[in-house]
Amino acid sequence: MDIKSMKNYLYWLYCQFELITCSYLMEPWEKVLFYTFNITMLVMMLYTTYIFVPVHISTAFQFFLHLFGNQHENTVSVVK
């Protein structure tokens, strides 16, 4: 895929995005507000995912380990 066709494809995707969101009907200042809001929401969602998903996965993993009878990593069994 050469540069020109890639540029045309990205432009086509942008036009599709404007058609789907009806942002082609907006004035420029409305587009700025709309895109700013959407980008802000996307960044907040990605940040929340980055912070909270690993904690939930770790908690679920520990729950299932405990459910199936495996010992925790910090449990020391003393057998003499």
UniProtKB/TrEMBL annotation:
Source organism of this protein record: Calidris pygmaea
Its biological purpose: Component of the serine palmitoyltransferase multisubunit enzyme (SPT) that catalyzes the initial and rate-limiting step in sphingolipid biosynthesis by condensing L-serine and activated acyl-CoA (most commonly palmitoyl-CoA) to form long-chain bases. The SPT complex is composed of SPTLC1, SPTLC2 or SPTLC3 and SPTSSA or SPTSSB. Within this complex, the heterodimer consisting of SPTLC1 and SPTLC2/SPTLC3 forms the catalytic core. Within the SPT complex, SPTSSB stimulates the catalytic activity and plays a role in substrate specificity.
UniProt keywords, alphabetically: Endoplasmic reticulum, Lipid metabolism, Membrane, Sphingolipid metabolism, Transmembrane, Transmembrane helix
GO terms, biological process: ceramide biosynthetic process; endoplasmic reticulum organization
Record bears the keyword Protein biosynthesis: no
Cellular localisation: Endoplasmic reticulum membrane
Name of protein: Serine palmitoyltransferase small subunit B
Pfam families in UniProt: SPT_ssu-like (PF11779)
GO cellular component, one term: serine palmitoyltransferase complex
Record field: transmembrane: 32-53
Pathway membership, UniProt: Lipid metabolism; sphingolipid metabolism; Sphingolipid metabolism
Annotated family: Belongs to the SPTSS family. SPTSSB subfamily.
InterPro entries the UniProt entry points to: Ser_palmitoyltrfase_ssu-like
Quaternary data: Component of the serine palmitoyltransferase (SPT) complex, which is composed of SPTLC1, SPTLC2 or SPTLC3 and SPTSSA or SPTSSB. The heterodimer consisting of SPTLC1 and SPTLC2/SPTLC3 forms the catalytic core of the enzyme, while SPTSSA or SPTSSB subunits determine substrate specificity. SPT also interacts with ORMDL proteins, especially ORMDL3, which negatively regulate SPT activity in the presence of ceramides.
Bilayer topology term: Multi-pass membrane protein
